[in-house]
Amino acid sequence: MNVLRRPAGLSKFRFYSTQTTRPFVPPASLNHFDFRQRQREKPRPTSPAFYTARPEFYDQLSSLESALQHAKTALTSCHLLPLPQFAREALPPRVNAWVDKRELGLKLRSTLTTSRYRRVVLVLNELETYRAIAEKAGIAELQEGIRGITELFERADAATMLARGKAKPVKFDEYGRSYTLGKRKTSSARVWIVPVQQPPADKSTASQSIPAATETDTALTALLDPISSSKSNEPVSVSQILVNNTPLSAYFPIPADRARVIHPIKLAGLLGAYNIFAIVRGGGTSGQSGAVAHGIAKGLAAHEPAVATILRKAKLLRRDPRMVERKKPGLAKARKRYAWVKR
């Protein structure tokens, strides 16, 4: 038996020599494996958004957000934030004219989606709110700083665009008369409102008191039917509404049209306080009554600024944008069809 023969079970193993001719050298000691030196030579990105798809956009957005945070911190240190709800509602309404999405993309040198554009506009609106708070509080330095940022994103014709939606103030002549223009559908009404000159108080009737409800009903009756009211002996203010030199009850025979004309006067509580003269052109009775009501509401808001809020909430100061729908070919009217007849 050969004792030097390898056992059968160890034939699949390999034996390696543990002796080496050269000593082991770690990679860190070699110059061409200096990883730290390679990391130092790599330039550092100029901004945190360097590796994003739109670095210019995110750089501008981060600068706006940092400016917003600085303004918020400054107002908080002045005990102006958080602002109560009633104080925030007392601020003047924010009317801005920011650049559109395309122009903002040119400024940021990036194509903007709608979501990114809205994100920038939200930050700008919040900055404008902080500017209004600083203006009311008298912090001129913070106000000018925010203004210098927001004016970079305003339209070139911002003043013209903001002045376009403002209503022109109603002018009064030397006698205190106002002139307004009302419109509805295809009708237009020119309305003159003249304050009623109260007659001098008679000593014999000064001691007699008339209830307020009775006086209001009498004034309403005088407007709707001046002929019958003139026969009564009750001392009421002489006021009238003339449409195209015709009394209101004679020009608008339909009660709904007369009620539409008198509605702003009743809502403001000024029955019998003004004489109203209107010249109406175009349209039918419904459109003409709406045009007269629109002109009356604008004139009353000019004469009595205290009732302007009531008339505005009732949507009487704005022109009704609804128009008559056009007739379609093959139909009897705008949507009415002819009766189907089997032939």
From TrEMBL:
GO CC terms: mitochondrial small ribosomal subunit
Entry superkingdom: Eukaryota
GO molecular function: RNA binding; structural constituent of ribosome
A Pfam entry, by short name: Ribosomal_S9
Listed GO biological process terms: translation
Coiled-coil spans in chain: none
SUPFAM superfamilies: Ribosomal protein S5 domain 2-like
UniProt keywords, alphabetically: Ribonucleoprotein, Ribosomal protein
InterPro entries noted in UniProt: Ribosomal_Su5_D2-typ_SF, Ribosomal_uS9, Ribosomal_uS9_CS, Ribsml_uS5_D2-typ_fold_subgr
Similarity-based family: Belongs to the universal ribosomal protein uS9 family.
PANTHER family: RIBOSOMAL PROTEIN S9, SMALL RIBOSOMAL SUBUNIT PROTEIN US9M
Name of the protein described by the UniProt record: Ribosomal protein S9/S16-domain-containing protein
Organism of this sequence: Suillus plorans
